[in-house]
Amino acid sequence: MKNLSILVVDDDPVIRRLLEQRLAKENHEVVVAEDGYVAEKFMRTRFFDVVLTDLMMPGDIGGIEVLEIAKEISNKTEVVLITAHSSVDTAVEAMKKGAVDYLEKPINFDELFLRLNKIANLQSILESARDLEHAMNTTETEASVTIQNLELQVAALQEQLDTIENILRDESLLDDTRIVKALDTLAEIQ
């Protein structure tokens, strides 16, 4: 599994520390923020593969706002909302705004790691697709240049063959002169 860069946003220091330890133990790069304001500062200075954010936090920047900020900054960042206050309406709202998933407290780490694996696998597939698209575009560009060069070479050779044909058909020249001129022109072909 790909190691992810993860921003954990939660006002509860115990949950922050627990998430930080468990995620780091799985070799993920973890940064923690105690509220939405600090999370926004982190997100504006670096990219995170995943933001795990508590839904309900003090201040004007709660989990939904963290989600909106993350998606505004990079649509490649996946956001998972975590809450003790499960609500279907909130989950639907979060998914509409771009959350990839929704977890309830207390956090089931097997479920969390399963979802992170899903995110990592999807990101790997998307990265492979981008690499393949780049390779195809490069190949297409190189093929186009090669075809263009071949067309130019064919046009130049056709022009030289036309010149040789005109020399050989020129009855104003002696046969030996026509042959010598035609051979000279032929020798110029590379």
Automatic annotation (TrEMBL):
<keyword id="KW-0805">Transcription regulation</keyword>
<keyword id="KW-0902">Two-component regulatory system</keyword>
<feature type="domain" description="Response regulatory">
    <location>
        <begin position="4"/>
        <end position="116"/>
    </location>
</feature>
<dbReference type="GO" id="GO:0032993">
    <property type="term" value="C:protein-DNA complex"/>
</dbReference>
<dbReference type="InterPro" id="IPR001789">
    <property type="entry name" value="Sig_transdc_resp-reg_receiver"/>
</dbReference>
<dbReference type="Pfam" id="PF00072">
    <property type="entry name" value="Response_reg"/>
</dbReference>
<feature type="coiled-coil region">
    <location>
        <begin position="140"/>
        <end position="167"/>
    </location>
</feature>
<keyword id="KW-0175">Coiled coil</keyword>
<dbReference type="GO" id="GO:0000976">
    <property type="term" value="F:transcription cis-regulatory region binding"/>
</dbReference>
<protein>
    <recommendedName>
        <fullName>Response regulatory domain-containing protein</fullName>
    </recommendedName>
</protein>
<keyword id="KW-0804">Transcription</keyword>
<dbReference type="GO" id="GO:0006355">
    <property type="term" value="P:regulation of DNA-templated transcription"/>
</dbReference>
<dbReference type="GO" id="GO:0000156">
    <property type="term" value="F:phosphorelay response regulator activity"/>
</dbReference>
<dbReference type="GO" id="GO:0005829">
    <property type="term" value="C:cytosol"/>
</dbReference>
<dbReference type="InterPro" id="IPR039420">
    <property type="entry name" value="WalR-like"/>
</dbReference>
<keyword id="KW-0597">Phosphoprotein</keyword>
<keyword id="KW-0238">DNA-binding</keyword>
